Amino acid sequence: MLVSKQWLQQFVDVSQKTGEELADLITKSGIEVEGVEVRDADLNNIVVGHVLTKEKHPEADKLNVTTVDIGQEEPVQIVCGAPNIEAGQDVIVARVGARLPGIKIKRAKLRGVVSEGMICSLEELGFEKKYIREDEQAGIHTFREPVTPGQDVLELLGLHDEVLELGLTPNRSDCLSMYGVAHEVAGILNTTAVFPAIDVTEDEEKTKLAVTLESEECPFYAAREIQHVVIGESPLWLKNRLIANGIRPINNVVDVTNFVLLETGQPLHSFDAEKLGQQIVVRQAKAGESFQTLDEVERTLDPSMLVITDGEKPVALAGVMGGANTEVDATTTSIILESAYFAPTSVRKTSRVLGLRSDSSSRFEKGVDPRRVLLALDRAAALIAELAGGTVLAGTVQAGTLQLDDHLIEASVSYINHRLGMKIEGTVMKELLERLGLEVELSGDALTVSVPTRRQDLMIPADIAEEVARLYGYDALTSSLPQEASRGFLPKRNQHRRQIRRLLQGAGLSQAITYSLTSEQRAMQFNEQTDLHPVKLAMPISEARSTLRTSLIPGLLEVAQHNVARQHADLAYYELGSVYLQRDASLETLPIEQELVAGVAVGLAEQHRAHGTMVKTDFFVVKGIVETLAEAFNVKLTYEAAVIDSMHPGRTARVLMDGEAIGFVGQVHPALSKEQYGLKEVYVFELDAMKLHSKEPVVYQEMSRFPSMTRDIAIVLNQSVTASEVEQVIMQAAGPLLQHVTLFDVYTGDNVGENKKSFAFSLRYQNKERTLVDEEVTAAHEHVVTALTKAFDAELRT
Question: Are residues 279 and 332 located together in one domain of the fold?
Answer without folding.
Answer: yes
